[in-house]
Write a structure and sequence with these properties.
This protein is an alpha+beta fold. The protein is built from eleven helices and 20 strands. The strands form five sheets. Strands 2, 5, 6, 7, 8, 10, 11, 12 and 14 form a nine-stranded mixed β-sheet that branches. The protein has a five-stranded mixed β-sheet with strand order 1-15-16-17-19. Strands 3-4 form a two-stranded antiparallel sheet. The longest helix is centred in the N-terminal third of the chain and has 27 residues, at 138-164. Bound molecules: zinc ion.
Length: 477
């Protein structure tokens, strides 16, 4: 058995200025925004669920889907971009394409690009991501490929545009709270309305905080609000395009702050659902609750973020549990469905002489903005990671799941030991095993520890070099 080639490259860039050393009058952030509508223009497969009539018409939308970019530049010229998307998931191939485009056009390395999806289950299917959920005709596959190609290009275009738009700005951090997320492993969906009505506590770990980053222009007006919540965007399962509750929250915020760009990132919501659910009315309600939590955070005294930025990235090597045997794959293929399509793919791969990988390169990224720590993890990350890192690294820590590569469910050791949906089902993510090895959390924790130490260290790797401008990157390419 072979191991998929594991890139060992580690990127680290550190601003030389710490927030405490920079008088506000002398140094400042620069920030720029850009956005593009990505609602499919022709009928397209929808991602998120199997076993439903999967083609959503172009005209049938609850609201539009968006790619939004916030570009930031610290006082020493070091840059980074946050990309939020109303998408269910992006495959490794799309992540790699966006990073390569951002490198060639804008001189950014992987440590400087934060690519996230909201995980909306009423967004379009993308190439190599959840594509076994429903059978695809050749024509549908072509449409998915075309849409994905255009999307990757759009994201790179918007990264370049946001970088070119940057003007002086101030950044601050605050936090709100809302409680519609429910631990779906510990509460039966059907019981939740009654438990809520009785005012009794729901079971299981949750993270109900709403971290908020506010970008303001010199006149104090809000230019961008980046906010997160740890909860599946699965209120809806219809065939109307939408960003689910997160889409409604962003619309509410952009209405109450004209000219501002509202950007949602998914937290560690793999084991969290908005409950009860399945109506547009509830979806609007949860969006309103989330927007209200952001507004509450905006009214509170915020923590100013000094214009210092450190960005670090590495691949952790995550080992797979045992591979399925040929007999098991043949049995699954005969059974059909999503798992049958997965098994048939693995059989084809083996017949072509390509062994199944023993491990997977797992992207881990850590940013330090002033004294804020942003930890971005790939895939569907359970809430234990957020609670653990906040306890370990302090309250100014934000933990983002669903970043970069929709690699698989990412259980903690606790969830892995307990088993169940979030502990496995890696076949749904095209992985060559049904789950990770039991040390998955240890391996991620070790990578996060290394990167946090790097961004917290002022000296390690710091060369005070400003990032190249897009024009300089283009000339060098
Ligand atoms: Zn999910």
């Amino acid at each position: 058995m072979s191991t998929r080639a594991l890139p060992t490259v580690v990127f680290l860039s550190l601003s030389t200025l710490l927030s405490t050393e920079v008088p506000a009058s002398e140094a400042t952030w620069k920030a720029g925004t850009a956005r593009a509508k990505i609602t499919p223009e022709k009928p397209l497969m929808m991602a998120g669920y199997g076993g439903r009539e999967p083609v959503a018409s172009a005209a049938n939308r609850l609201h539009d889907l968006w790619v939004k970019v916030l570009a930031l530049e610290a006082a020493d010229g070091h840059r980074a971009v946050v990309v939020t998307t109303d998408l269910c998931g992006l495959a490794k191939r799309s992540y790699d394409a966006v990073c390569e485009g951002a490198r060639q056009r804008c001189g950014l390395d992987r440590s400087q690009v934060k690519l996230t999806c909201s995980h909306t289950h009423t967004g379009p299917l993308l190439r190599e991501c959840f594509e076994d959920f429903n059978p695809l005709t050749d024509e549908q596959r072509r449409d998915v490929d075309q849409y994905t190609d255009a999307l990757e290009k759009t994201i790179v275009d918007k990264i370049a545009e946001a970088l070119e738009n940057m003007t002086p700005a101030t950044l601050s951090a605050s936090e709100g709270f809302t409680d519609f997320a429910v631990n779906r492993r510990n509460n039966r969906e059907a019981d939740v309305p009654e438990i809520r009505k009785r005012g009794e506590p729901l079971q299981g770990p949750v993270d109900h905080t709403v971290p908020v980053l506010v970008v303001r222009a010199g006149d104090g007006s809000v230019r961008a609000v980046v906010f997160g919540y740890a909860c599946h965007t699965t209120t809806l399962n219809t065939l109307q395009w939408s960003g689910d509750y997160a889409g409604f929250a962003m619309l509410d915020l952009e209405k109450s702050h004209p000219g501002a760009q509202a950007m949602f990132f998914q937290g560690c919501g793999a084991d969290q659902n908005p409950l009860p659910r399945r109506s547009v009315e509830l979806c609007r309600q949860y969006g309103g609750m989330l927007a209200a939590a952001v507004e509450e955070a905006l009214r509170k005294p915020a923590t100013p973020i000094g214009p210092a930025l450190a960005t670090a990235f590495e691949y952790a090597e995550l080992k797979f549990d045992r591979h399925p045997t040929m007999a098991e794959l043949q049995e699954e293929t005969a059974r059909g469905g999503q798992k049958g399509r997965w098994a048939a793919r693995l059989i084809r791969q083996l017949e072509q002489g390509q062994p199944l990988a023993d491990s997977c390169p797992y992207p881990v990224q850590v940013w330090r903005l002033g004294e804020q720590l942003w930890i971005s993890l790939a895939g569907e990350v359970v809430v234990d990671y957020s609670l653990h890192y906040k306890a370990k690294y302090g309250a100014a820590t934000w933990v983002h799941g669903y970043s970069h590569d929709m690699v698989a469910h990412v259980p903690s050791r606790r969830v892995w030991n307990e088993g169940g949906y979030e502990a496995g089902y890696s076949d749904q993510f095209n992985q060559p095993a049904e789950r990770w090895a039991g040390d998955v959390e240890d391996r991620i924790n070790a990578a996060v520890d290394r990167l946090v130490a790097k961004v917290k260290s002022r000296l390690a790797g710091s060369d005070g070099r400003r990032s190249r401008t897009c024009q300089e990157a283009r000339r060098a390419a």
